[in-house]
Design goal:
Helix content: 25-40%
Shape: globular
CATH superfamily of the largest domain: Glutamine synthetase/guanido kinase, catalytic domain
Distance between the termini: 33 Å
Strand content: 15-25%
CATH topology of the largest domain: Creatine Kinase, Chain A, domain 2
Structural class: alpha+beta
CATH class of the largest domain: Alpha Beta
Largest sheet: 9 strands, mixed
CATH architecture of the largest domain: 2-Layer Sandwich
Length: 418
């Protein structure tokens, strides 16, 4: 098996969504697939130092074969075990568990935005600019072909609103498979652009004066027969409305899952097409939940616009799924859709948390993330509280306001390559 590859690469994902890998010589792959490899869980905040031995077992369904630096590499994402049992709060396990509990199939399709770093920002790049205004379009076409060869179902690419901002979209898939693909997609894009002497960032707001990068996710809910429960005769169903109602009602307490960094909240500000107000609407890109309506009488999905590319996709998708299901269980009917530019409305609408500290407090007050993460909730919270405190310390040292929207050197160091 895999005789044509040089190395085996095994990946795990920590609680905040960072990929960690180990590279092995291509020997005894069958044994590795069956027995896995041990690793120090305490170094990635998945266990305590006094009891830190964890086991990573590759999932063959996650195999991606790619080339880098002249080598062919077989990449697997792993499940994590402790004392012979799946680690309940391992991010991939969290999503697997919640998807198994309900008699539905949940599908996701993300729009992952990113910036390609440039020497100078000339300000002449606009949404959907063609080549040569979008000067890296030929490189993106090569990338799309490589992603297709690796096994991604790539839909399209375009230049985004920010100067040097781009998006390559994947067609929607089952939620677990998509979360796996998001992890490898980000990993491979960094490799590809690095080998083409360019740097990219998935940082939510790398540049103060430009639009932030979001990861809008389109969702559909299906029964076991494959029927889309969000659409009937091209219109939203009652199921879809209640699912929307649940996400809106619980959006504040799950924000720590969808927007989990200090920098995330500098994207969530007026004027840059990012959602702030807890609302929904048809075709409304100023709302938190947008219902795409490109074709008349063919409304078939919902788009949740608050996640950003630095979220942990397993936990973010799981949290959105649970919030939506609570909408079904509790018969939550959302308020009327808003068709105005919400940024220009004068009436007061409830907003998402305004910073990481507020998101932490909302998660503590709520129950969704506590139940999802189980023992991992305390670990995640401790890491996020420490992150916030370090940021506050930096601002104090620099004599800067805690409410500054400027992008600090601390954030660049912390998130630019995350």
């Amino acid at each position: 098996m895999l005789n044509n590859v040089d190395f085996i690469e095994l990946g795990i994902v920590d609680l905040v969504g960072r990929l960690k890998t180990r590279t092995l010589m291509n020997k005894n792959i069958e044994k590795i697939l069956e027995e896995g490899i041990g690793f120090d869980g305490s170094s990635v905040n998945l266990s305590d130092i006094e009891d830190s031995d964890l086991l990573a077992i590759p999932d063959p369904t996650t195999l991606k074969i790619y080339s880098s630096n002249g080598h062919k590499i077989a990449f697997f994402l792993c499940d994590v075990y402790k004392d012979g049992k799946p680690l309940s709060y391992y991010p991939r396990q969290i999503l697997k568990n919640i998807l198994k509990k309900k008699n539905y199939k949940f599908k996701a399709g993300p729009e992952i935005e990113f910036y390609v770093k440039k020497q100078n920002f000339l300000g002449n790049h606009e949404y959907m600019n063609p080549y040569p205004l979008d000067e890296i379009k030929p490189l993106k076409r090569i990338l799309m072909k490589k992603l297709d060869e690796i096994g991604f179902d790539i839909k399209l690419e375009h230049h985004e609103v920010g100067d040097g901002q781009h998006e390559i979209t994947m067609n929607h898939q089952d939620a677990l498979e998509m979360a796996d693909n998001i992890i490898f997609y980000k990993y491979y894009l960094r490799i590809f652009f690095k080998e083409n002497e360019k740097e990219i960032t998935f940082m939510p707001k790398p540049f103060y004066w430009l639009n932030g990068s979001g990861m809008h996710i389109h969702f559909t809910l299906h029964n076991n027969n494959g029927e889309n429960l969000f659409s009937n005769d091209g219109k939203l169903t009652e199921t879809a409305l209640k699912f929307i109602g649940g996400i809106l009602r619980y959006s504040r307490e799950i924000t720590l899952a969808t927007n989990q960094t200090v920098n995330s909240f500098k994207r969530l500000v007026p004027g840059f097409e990012a959602p702030i107000y807890i609302s929904w609407g048809y075709g409304n890109r100023s709302a938190l939940i947008r219902i795409p309506k490109y074709r008349k009488d063919n409304i078939n999905r919902i788009e949740v616009r608050m996640p950003d590319p630095l979220c942990n996709p397993y936990i973010a998708i799981a949290a959105i799924y649970v919030a939506g299901l609570k909408g079904l269980e509790e018969n939550i009917i959302p308020p009327d859709p808003i068709q105005e530019n919400i940024y220009h409305m004068k009436n007061e609408l409830e907003t998402l948390p305004s910073n990481l500290e507020e998101a932490i407090k909302e998660a503590e007050r709520g129950t969704i993330l506590k139940k999802l993460l189980n023992n991992g909730f305390t670990r995640l919270l401790k890491e996020k509280v420490n992150e916030w405190n370090n940021y506050m310390k930096y601002l104090k040292e620099k004599n800067m306001s805690r409410n500054t929207l400027k992008i600090t050197e601390w954030e660049i160091r912390q998130y630019f390559y995350m």
